[in-house]
Structure formats: structure tokens, C-alpha cells
Amino acid sequence: MFLSEVEDFRTLYVDPGEDTGWCLSSGNILISAGTTKLWPFADDVWAELESPGGIAGLNDPSLFRDTCGLDAADELSKPINRVVCEDFRIYPWVARNGDLDWDQVRTARLIGALTFMARLKGIDFFVQGAKIKERAEAGGAQELFYNPLKENRHQNDAIMHYTYFTQIGPDDGSVASRVTYAEAV
User: I need a surface site. Which of 10, 15, 85, 99 has the fewest CB within 10 A?
Assistant: First the structure.
């Protein structure tokens, strides 16, 4: 396992979309998760990066997992120093079919905004493919899911990205791309 202990910062995992699923971890400990509309989510991320530890948005204490065994105040005050986001691709057959004609590709815009925020703040940003389900489930993702499953599917998808990343880490070939602070300067 790549991440095997608590870290002194938090990682934000993102399943981007109109209803954006997200979760936060401290190393290998999942500390919170939620689903937020696309642009309000971007605003919450920016607010957190500008002033870590606020009590709204990503740091809503009611979203903290009591079962994680960590202190909510301590964990929610840690800065976010890593973002792992599901990639967005326009597949050729979808483009040829015209299914995305005139689409505003808002999901791609959100990913671009998150990438820019990470670069601006010196935070590593990783993009993972969408096909991670098998490995994430083998790693125990379903044990961490929120119920009811349908209503929580987006944050549960973010938990799949968390489970996958904690197993493989940033240097595995399946992590699609990496925008590090070193590349930004």
C-alpha cells in the first residue's frame, strides 16, 4: 500500500460532474465525504485553499466520519496539499455520434479550475482514469461507502478514487497525469 499512515495534510479526492462527489483523507484514513454542485464545489475548494480550516463547505463538521478514530478539529484544520481527480475524456465515438455537440463540457472546466488552483497554491494534482472500480473494490472501497448507495453514489465514486490511490500512489503508471508544484514554477 502506498499510503500506510496518517499524514500532516489532507488529500482531496474528486469525482467531478454536475453533482461532484468528493472525499478527504489524512494519509490512509478517510475523514469525510460529500456531494456538492459543480461550481459551489469549486468555490468551496478555493475558500479552503485560501484559508485552511474554515467550518463551511469541505470542513463541515457534520460530514466528519466518527469512525475514523481521529480528532475532527485537528484533521479539519490541516491544509489540503494533494488533489486526486477523475479524468475527463471525450471518446471519439461519442464525438462522432454528436452526443456532445454544443455541450459546455462543464466537468472539464471544473477540472481545469481545480488544476489551476493547485498550480497556483503549489499543490500536487493527480488525474486518475475512470476505470478503477475493480482494483478499488478489491481494496475495500465498498466497506467505506455511504448509504443509501444511490443518493451517495458520487461521493462513493470519490471514495473509489481514494481507495485506488492509497493502494497505488502517484508513481504508478495508471495515474494518467501529474501536475506538480515543481512543474508550475
Answer: 99
* Domains annotated on the chain, with CATH: 10-184 (3.30.420)
Residue, of 56 and 57, whose pLDDT is higher: 57
Is the N-terminal amide bond of 61 cis, ω within 30° of 0?
no
Average pLDDT over residues 139-163: 95
Relative to beta strand 124-128, strand 80-86 is parallel
**Amino acid type, 174:** S
